[in-house]
Amino acid sequence: MQRAMGMMAPLGFRLQAVPSAPRRTLSCAQDVLRRTPLYDFHLAHGGKMVAFAGWSLPVQYQESHVDSHLHTRRHCSLFDVSHMLQTKILGCDRVKLMESLVVGDIAELRPNQGTLSLFTNEAGGILDDLIVTNTSEGHLYVVSNAGCWDKDLALMQDKVRELKNRGSDVGLEIVDNALLALQGPTAAQVLQAGVADDLRKLPFMTSAVMEVFGVSGCRVTRCGYTGEDGVEISVPATGAVHLAMALLKNPEVKLAGLAARDSLRLEAGLCLYGSDIDEHTTPVEGSLGWTLGIVTSGCPSPCLKKNVAMGYVPFKYSQPGTQLLVEVRRKQQMAVVSKMPFVPTNYYTLK
């Protein structure tokens, strides 16, 4: 984890007790929530549905959260992330539009290469994190957070109108696909059985359109939110259940929900928008430029069998090994500053 260059620094802690999961997102009434194309599939497979960012999603299935977490680290798990906002940015000036909204050099992306980037406001605060892919089909493919759906969409649509009024060639389309994440060390092996493309040629943060287990028009991106090797598959909504069933036929694959996804990303040192980063956090402060008295994310680590957390402290207390007192549920607990990720990542790159 790079150290921030300001007065505050992001870091990881190992501590005695932290909240197991953020609660504020699980609040909407079930009858007003949006449903993914896999909603009935989740119910049929024992999914425990909760409200998350305006959607009804499985927090876990019949197995425990810890079992799902460890299965992902040792084998692979299937997550429904169809709540994410998927968009296409079209036109000759698509790069100009995106570079006016995000940090990062979009123009230098090779065909079908993607990058993690950030929408920022005029003060440099983070509006959202997103992945931008420069597709070989002549558009940018953008995936951003469901919790920021309305904000992100309005931001991009406003910029489209602004540039069009100046004569630019640019447009935006919402991609009405499901999005499935297959994550874990055996994910590529499982997926290879259902595609003709050689996945050894698809390294981390690249993508390709292919037929997957008989479903055509799928965009497969080698990325994820767990720290493990894996893919996210943007699949036409009508083929989502078929694809999920085909993947589950392999005994390596089990379903996993929001709880495992959160603890996996925390072990991997990946930020959660709204908890670890927000409009009051700059990319440098969030160690996304490649502070505490406040814990932003925390949970028991199934792999380490210790409690871990992210937070912010004054820079002078940010050295690994520094002992701190943090307040957890109105009680002070000993914590030790640790490097992140807590668990090493296993992304696939070409040798």
UniProtKB/TrEMBL annotation:
Record domain GCVT N-terminal: where: 38-292
EC number(s) recorded for this UniProt protein: 2.1.2.10
Reactions the enzyme catalyzes: N(6)-[(R)-S(8)-aminomethyldihydrolipoyl]-L-lysyl-[protein] + (6S)-5,6,7,8-tetrahydrofolate = N(6)-[(R)-dihydrolipoyl]-L-lysyl-[protein] + (6R)-5,10-methylene-5,6,7,8-tetrahydrofolate + NH4(+)
GO biological process: glycine catabolic process
Subcellular location: Mitochondrion
Cross-referenced InterPro entries: GcvT, GcvT/YgfZ/DmdA, GcvT/YgfZ_C, GCVT_N, TrmE/GcvT-like
The organism's place on the tree of life at top rank: Eukaryota
GO molecular-function terms, A-Z: aminomethyltransferase activity; transaminase activity
UniProt keywords, alphabetically: Aminotransferase, Mitochondrion, Transferase, Transit peptide
Enzyme class at the top of the EC tree: transferase
Binding of substrate, residues: E232
Any Pfam family: GCV_T
Listed GO CC annotations: glycine cleavage complex; mitochondrion
Function as written in the Swiss-Prot or TrEMBL entry: The glycine cleavage system catalyzes the degradation of glycine.
Record's subunit section: The glycine cleavage system is composed of four proteins: P, T, L and H.
Protein family: Belongs to the GcvT family.
Name the UniProt record assigns to this protein: Aminomethyltransferase
Lineage, broadest ranks: Eukaryota, Metazoa, Chordata, Craniata, Vertebrata
